[in-house]
Amino acid sequence: MPQAIPLPSDLSPATVANTASLLRIIALSLISGAAIASRLFAVINFESIIHEFDPWFNYRATRVLASKGFYEFWNWFDPTAWYPLGRVVGGTVYPGLMATSGVIYYGLRALNLPVDIRNICVLLAPGFSALTAWATYMFTKEMKDESAGLLAAAFIGIVPGYISRSVAGSYDNEAIAIFLLMFTFFCWIKALKLGSALFGTVAAVFYFYMVAAWGGYVFITNMIPLHALVLILMGRFTSRLYVAYSSWYVIGTLASMQVPFVGFQPVSTSEHMAALGVFGLLQIVAFTQLVRSHVSSKQFQDILFVALVSAGVLGVAAFVGLTYKGTIAPWTGRFYSLWDTGYAKKYIPIIASVSEHQPTAWPSFFMDLQFLIFLFPAGVIMCFHQLRDEHVFVIIYAVMASYFAGVMVRLMLTLTPVVCVAAAVAFSSLLDTYLDAHEPEPEASATDSAASVDTGKKPKKEKAATGSALADLVAAATPTKKGDAPKFKGVYGTDTRFMIVMNAIAMLSFFVFHCTWATANAYSSPSVVLASQNQDGSQHIIDDFREAYYWLRQNTPETAVVMSWWDYGYQIAGMADRPTLVDNNTWNNTHIATVGKAMSSSEEVAYPILRKHDVDYVLVIFGGLLGYSGDDINKFLWMVRIAQGVWPEEIQEPNYFTPQGEYRVDSMASNAMKNSLMYKMSYYRFSELFGGGQAVDRVRNQQLPKEGPTLDVLDEAYTTENWIVRIYQVRKEDLLGRDLKSANAFAKGKKRKRSKPASRRRALSAAAST
Amino acid sequence: MLHAKSSLHSPLPAAATIKLDTASFELLTSPTRDWSASIQLTALDPRRRCNPCKEFSPSWNAVAKAWSKTSKQHRDTHFFATLDFDDGQAVFQQLGLASAPVVYAYPAAEGSRSTGKTAPSTYDFSHGFEAGPLAQHLSRHTPIPIPYTAPFDWARWTTTAAGVLANRWTWAVVSILTSLVMTSGYMFTRIRNSPFMGGDGSWIAGGFQNQYGQEVQVISLVYGTLGFAFIMLTLVIPYQSSSQRQRFQVYLWTAVIAMVYSILVVLFKAKNRGYPFRLLL
Q1: Which of B 197-226 lie inside 8 A of A, CB atoms?
Q2: Which of A14, A704, B172, B194 can pair with A384 through a Cys bridge, CB separation 3.0 to 4.6 Å?
Q3: Integer Cα distance of B176 and B220 in angstroms
Q4: Where is the signal peptide (chain B) (predicted)?
């Protein structure tokens, strides 16, 4: 066979194999290095700090674990959260993340390497991303070969879709969960291929770890049964499948029930019923296989029919009956809203209000996956081309995950691994084809068609080329019958190879540039600390959040209860160490609605609520001065909606819009809006900041009235440098028993006008303007 | 006569075709009839071993049944009847029939529908025993065409459907289309009720977290084209036996990738103004 590129021929196969394996190890370690390094932008640009919201709780829990030990953590009741209810942390948390950090912490201490627990928490996600790259390599190796595995590892190492949830400081469950997901899937594929109970057990152990680490374990709980079911329907039931599935399911389910937060859910909720049902089905199928080998085929047909029908009827009847009786819980709202996308907005606004539960527009897909997103379908086609058992898995995973990622932004994270795997299969197939040095024998007919191509007109030529190409595609796609299908030949010439390889290198480099840019600019902000640019381009750090939280920590008694919207609950608990009414755990909708009601009602209505809940301080986030769009006024409608869900007569969303249906904060704003506690706290004394000039809210680009709102039941306690965080102290009841409004008016020297309370403000403003 | 007529058509609602014997045959084909009739002469008794009769009988019944569904006004002017050999040997002898089945169509001899012809015409079985041609032929003798439609062929459909479902490429197309549409933001437009295009006629929505329905189509087309180019390069071109043609295709598809990818980046730049990179465009 002729060669397009000369290759050395005097190497022994052993040398080639050894060199290849050495290169693989080097490549994998470089990939791990790149994966870790690209996640350190956050530390370098800012500092070693915990990011966002949920990580602050994880960090706080980990500190408890590290300082007090595992049993204390397990039994930890936190009286400061959800004041005055408290929270049983040990039983309502996925402890895998904290346990992992705790083990690393104690391990390093045992080696006499005292490392601050914060640094372990900050760097845990980058560290696990290196393991994810390795797990993806192992998984993809099972799909194709080592070279595809290396590409997949490199892709997942730097792809923004995964980096977005795993930069340094993003100390969240997903940080370790994606590694566990990929490794569980790898063990499952391996168990299925080998029919190995050992790998099935390893898969179960990692499944247990996954259950302990992330609520997304339900994805595995349904993916593996779905794969098994599809294999059975395709007529691919084997004893290997039986062994792999049974060992995984039995051990994995028993293990997962040891996590207190999961408990008996695996046998009592709809999310887990698919796994149980497929387990039962596998037993039936295995049993019929056994019977088949012992009875004649006519009898077998009858037995099979009766058995399948009765088993199916019994199973469905049992499922329906138990659901009806309430033993099996129906789908929980969070999972149900994935199928019925309108459900959450209607019935559980608290789930719909979370920004990461929004649907995904296409730019997010391209931002997070770049060129992998269009290699992905090509890779799925290649899986169909071979369609071994493990390829079926990738296909199902691809379809399911792309749907889920479309419905919810945060589920992009589960799509990312399969995109990397499929894209790596496609890309490495391309490279395999064009890097193969062998050249096919030239054929006699080649000269003829060459002549016709040279003389033919251009459009005709193109048509002919694509037309025959389509015919070739069909021929290549249909399973080859001996003789009549075209044979795989290979690539002629060096220029074609050069062309493809150059194109491939260009695309890969563009990918690297894109990933670096996206990571540095979009995904490395801690959101606790904000950055802006000065006139000269240097970085200016906006540190209002920590300023406010430390003020609370230093200036208020330890028992002072702070009320804020639930987004900031974990941060207040973590940084200010003060009790909060609600936090990001969002387990009690009524409690959150209470806070929403207090925020969206007038002072007279809100004050009793504040007092009844022992609230000492109220904290609001206001971005109007700086143009920080994630502030409470922008989240305000969700507070109204959630409160409306519980008190539909008292709070109505339309009242907060102008009659024209606009959401305004300027002088045109509706009365309910202007009187709401949230509005007053946000804009209290805001206009004074502009001297005599026009006060402008830079988020909503609206001009505010000169006369700002007044507050009777709250005192301004602290406002940060850029006005992002404003803290108000709740006044105690008046000592003389007056209501606070009249007491306030009296203090300002105004007479109480019981009959016409509305005119008071007019009188006040008249006094102010004179 | 009237009495005879009413006694004749009374069994019609129960059975679409009248069972005749020698006497009723004579009555039905009476020379003073103001009605027309289609008569099947057959031998269905198993002892007669007439296989064609058995084959033909279902088609006859189907056509007769179709006729029985027409309105009463038309139904009572044309009758379907069956004479079995065992019930009317005399008729067979009289007509000189030595084989069965035979179909006679008797036109009306009197009344408004009379054409002057009284002799029956014979149905030619050269079209086979199918119901379709039979209905077509007999419609020439009925006041309105027989409303016969071939029944739905479930067996063939099931086989075809099973073949389609068992084909992996059916599933491949479904899976690929699903993931292309989903990754182009289809669910976003569904959940947010995005319009198909902007009010001012623009088809691309401003802003990173927003999109119109038309963008789903454009973007999935772009992704699909790029993915297809890779499939061509990997799975098709290496099977090409002519080196010149292969070279041409390699260049063609590489150019397609470069161009479409550049367009994609331009589109992305339109959504994300801060994006610093660009390709050819």
Answers
A1: 208-211, 215-216, 219, 222-224, 226
A2: B172
A3: 10
A4: none
Dihedrals φ, ψ of B14, to 5°? -75, -55
pLDDT tens digits, residue range B189-231?
Answer: 888 888 888 878 788 888 888 889 889 999 999 999 999 999 9
Residue A377 has what DSSP assignment?
H
Q: Which of residues 314-373 of A touch B (CB under 8 A)?
A: 341-342, 358-367, 371, 373
Straight-line distance from the first to the last Cα atom of chain B, in angstroms, rounded to the nearest whole number: 93
Residues of chain A with Cβ-Cβ distance to B227 below 8 Å are 374-378, 381, 426
Q: Provide, rounded to the nearest whole percent, the portion of chain B with pLDDT above 90.
A: 20
B95 and chain A in contact, CB less than 8 A: no
Of B179, B216, B236, which has the smallest distance from its Cβ to A377's Cβ? B179
Could you tell me how many residues make up chain A?
770
Q: What is the mean pLDDT of residues A719-741?
A: 87
Domain limits, chain B: 2-138, 184-271
- Locate A478 and state its tokens: 């249909």
The stretch A213-233 carries a mean pLDDT of 92
Show which of residues 500-519 on chain A sit within 8 Å of chain B, judged by CB atoms. Answer: 500, 503, 507, 510, 513-514, 517
pLDDT exceeds 50 at position A469: no
As a whole number, mean pLDDT of residues A296-321 equals 78
Q: Minimal Cα–Cα distance from B154 to chain A, Å?
A: 22
* Residue of A362, A430, A443 lying closest to B234 (CB–CB): A430
Banded model confidence at residue A10, pLDDT cuts 50, 70, 90:
confident
Burial bucket for residue A738 (CB in 10 Å: 0-12, 13-18, 19+): middle
Closest residue to B227, CB basis, from A341, A374, A429: A374
At residue B217, the pLDDT reads 92
- The long-range contacts involving A468-473, CB below 8 angstroms and separated by at least 24 positions, are A468/B245, A469/B232, A469/B236, A469/B237, A469/B249, A472/B236, A472/B237, A472/B239, A472/B240, A473/B231, A473/B232, A473/B235, A473/B236
Mean pLDDT of A343-366: 79
* A420 contacts on B by Cβ (under 8 Å): none
Residues B243, A492: C-beta atoms closer than 8 Å:
yes
In chain A the domains, ranked by start, together with CATH numbers, are 541-732 (3.40.50.12610)
Which CATH fold topology does B2-138 show?
A: Glutaredoxin (3.40.30)
Kindly state the percentage of chain A with pLDDT values over 70. Answer: 89
Better pLDDT: B157 or A327: B157
Query: Across the interface, do B268 and A363 touch by the CB < 8 Å criterion?
Result: yes
Binned at pLDDT 50, 70 and 90, residue A770 comes out as very low
**Does B188 touch chain A if contact means CB atoms closer than 8 Å?**
yes
Average pLDDT over residues A574-588: 88
| Residue A580 DSSP label | B
**Tokens found for residue A563:** 């009320």
- Phi, psi for A620 (deg, rounded to 5): -125, 155
| pLDDT for residue A466 | 44
Contact B243 A493 (CB under 8 A): yes
Across the A:B interface, residue pairs with CB atoms under 8 Å apart total: 213
Which residue is closest to A454 within chain B, CA to CA?
A: B244
Side by side, the strands of the sheet bearing B121-122 are: B18-20, B78-84, B36-42, B102-106, B121-122
Strand pairing category for A615-621 and A561-563: parallel
- Answer whether 0.90 is exceeded by the pTM: no
Chain A nearest C-alpha distance from B159 (Å): 17
* Token couple for A507: 């695309």
Cα atoms in the Cβ-side hemisphere of radius 13 Å centred on B1:
8
Tokens representing B269 are 């730049």
Q: Quick check: B115 and B30 in contact, CB under 8 A?
A: no
Whether the pLDDT of residue A629 is over 50: the answer is: yes
β-pair partners for B97: none
Q: Could you tell me how far CA A473 lies from the centroid of its own chain?
A: 38
